[in-house]
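tool_call: predict_structure(chain=1)
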Amino acid sequence: MSKINPLELPEITLRVAEFLDEKDLVRCVSVCKSWHQTLLRSIWKKVAAIDSVLFRTPQGLSDDSLMQHRDLVQELEIHENFSRFYTITYPELHTLTIVDDNPNRETLDRKAYPEELIAFNPSLVHLKVVRLGRNLLAPFWTAVSGLLHLKTLTLQDVTMKDTYSLGEFWSACQNLERLCIRQSRISAEGLEVGDNLIFHKMQALELHLPKHVDQKKQLDMIRRCPNIQDLTWNVVGDENNVLDLFAQDAARELWPKLDSLSLSHSITDETLALVISAIPKITNLDVCNSGFGPESFQALKRHFKTLVKLNISKCPATTSAMLQEIMCSCPRLEELRGDCLNATQDVVGGLPWMCLSLRILEVCIKFDDHSEDLQPVVFDRISLLIHLRSLAIGSPGLWETMVFRQALDLRLVSGLGSLETLKNIRHFGFYNTTQRFSKVEIEWMIEKWKKLDRVDGIVSDNTNHNALRKMLKDNDIIIS
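tool_result:
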């Protein structure tokens, strides 16, 4: 009885493939017949046709190769200078991104149009359209309407100005679960949705629309999504107090399932407090660069037990004491982005952190003068956050000399060694902090943080700076 080679089992081979780049995958295909059959699907799963070559597929593959393996393609990103691929059916295709970044669109040797590509691939589940130079007319949206399995649609930097075409667009959105419209040119009447059109299946909505698109019409669009769970809304100026109306609607439980909210910087502390108070349960809240302050903070306390993600960075009215209380009161928190946390005043001697499930922590940790002996205490606190994947204790937006000179000292003599527990760290950031790393600290990071692949900040202001950067680069760690 012949023994089975574990490396020839498809399950094992696919697991190995997760750690290989495209070139290595091509080399492995020729190892044996079983590897060829298994890895071919990994090679062709994602294809991107950009700038006259096929990316995310091995170099040297021809158009004929794409035709030969089209039944393996599941995700396709295609730019308009590849319109010759528009009339191909990809049987397993579920995700399609169409991009037009050609400044000379009239010179394109166009073989077909995007609506043909869509019509040829009715199995699509996710569709993204980026920078399409021409106005998206009715034929395009008629083709999208034919996608019976489509769940998500993302429009980024596109043009929709024809009234009839906009009607077709909204009809095509009826069965969507997620709709994102970002930085797109839409006529002032673009959100005049038919009176009887309700988007019952819509679970996530993202609106980043020009200022001329009436905000009350945007709110009317949101009202037509009664089952929405996740809302991202960029309200420019809030000239008509539309956010107050939104808060009133939320208080009437117009969206009983809404628990994830991202609002623009124009919202005031008072209005934001009304919104937060009106929503029954909040798990994710992003109000970066907003008026979040004392009133909003008080309203948010009711949601501390359910919060999973919170972004209150670049909010001038946010205090260190608020951040400390959040970290001591939110047991389910996985992502926290904020401004300055004063370790001397609020962390040392304060209550222990309850947010032990944190995966992302981005706050500037600072100390008062002559507080060097308190550094190990803070390192010990951070060491308990064993699930961290991203730790950033500085900020690109901090320019006050006293702030970044009094940041956490990331040297072994100050307590860095306590962070050996952070086995999952991939990103380590310390922008605008004065650090004095030596070779010893860099070697320690490389040895202890096996998954580290990105460092943000100046590792040293000494003459050994370039040598330390080279050590990181030689270990495939990106530095920015």
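agent: The first helix runs from residue 10 to 17. Proceeding to next step.
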